[in-house]
Amino acid sequence: MKKYFFIPRIGENYETGFHGMKTLILGSHFYCPYADCRHLKEECASSARIRCMDRACPCYIDKNDQSYYKLSNSDTIEIESYLEGFPYPSYDAFTYLMLNKRDYLSEDEKRSFWAQVAFTNYIQHYWPDGYTPPYTENESLFDADYEAFQDVLNELQPRVVVAWNKAVKDCLLAHGDLQFIGMIDIPVISAFLFVNEGVEPKLSPKQRKTLVEKYAVISDKPDVGWLRKLLEKSFNDPHAVESFRLKMEYVDHNRLSVPLKRDGAGIKDIVTLLKRCAKQKLIVRMGDKLDFGPGMLRMHREIFLKLVKEHFDVPTKGINAGFSRMFGYEFSHCQIPEKADDSKIRLMRSIFSQVRKKVMVSPSHDSHGG
Coil, helix or strand for 233? Predict the structure, then answer.
């Protein structure tokens, strides 16, 4: 038995594809507006129990076509309802943006787009509202449905996956089966482009470049000027970069065996540190913010900020809030295991060890009596 409950809606021209490639649009979850329904908080709120409600939903139980009106067909029911004129603002906005339309969008254009793609939601049960919690604080909730998503991948074999939600994007990054290309440059909605490397033949460099151009993918490589502006904005301080001062190291002049070197290739400021981390994919640019790279779980994120505090004299107020605004992630004071150690932590420590200290030499106390 397939692990997914919701049957993906497959457009009639899916094999031809959108931009010439089989494309899966991956939403977050289904929202049920009937908040007072007792099933919503019980069977329908569980991936393990929702199957028993497939043909028992009070909304569908009196419908004539029981083969169509069932919960497992929700992917198709929602898209078809939207195409028939039912008001779904989120689908409308997404369709406009994917087609790069700014004004009128014809019914034929809507139908043409959704005929070229497949669609499903990641979570395999209903939620009582439209809010999607962050992945980093709810790994077990998302990971419980990852095998169901793998079944969808194996069955549909999409070349391209467009994840229509940051939490879903973070989940896919954590599992690493898809190659992350970047954030799509569209307003209002967060959409992220992935490539399925398990599909043959693999994309050529030219095809990959064309894909990035067609989807207007934002570069994930932050430059120095952008990082400075982000720090200034996040800390609401035009001198934010300078407020991260190098730690002082006092050296006794009498104990120096060799002259001090005052230059070198070490990390000299917070911007250089962020650039080094980005080069190693520990962090990436994600639209107008930074984000953590593949495999950077909650523990790694908290250790990252802890290392910043250890290696710089940081601003005394608002350090957690400022970094939270920079990353769109709520830093907390979660307990970090004392012996936490893995490849990500070792890489972070290696980079942070390159942060230079401002050396202050104490004066000589030698006596020179006549």
Answer: helix
Q: Each residue of 56-94: pLDDT tens digit?
A: 888 888 888 888 989 999 999 999 999 998 888 888 888
In order of 38, 113, 191, 271, 328, the CA distances from 287 in angstroms are: 40, 25, 10, 18, 11
193 bridge partner residues: 162, 182
The structure tokens listed for 7 are 């049957």
320's tokens: 């957690």
> Which of the 8 DSSP states describes residue 18?
B
CA–CA dist 360, 17 (Å, integer): 64
Residue 318 region by backbone torsions, left for phi larger than 0, else alpha for psi between -120 and 50, else beta: left
Angle at 251 (CA atoms; ends 247, 252), nearest 5 degrees: 155
pTM for this prediction? 0.76
DSSP 256-274: -SSPPP---SSB-SHHHHH
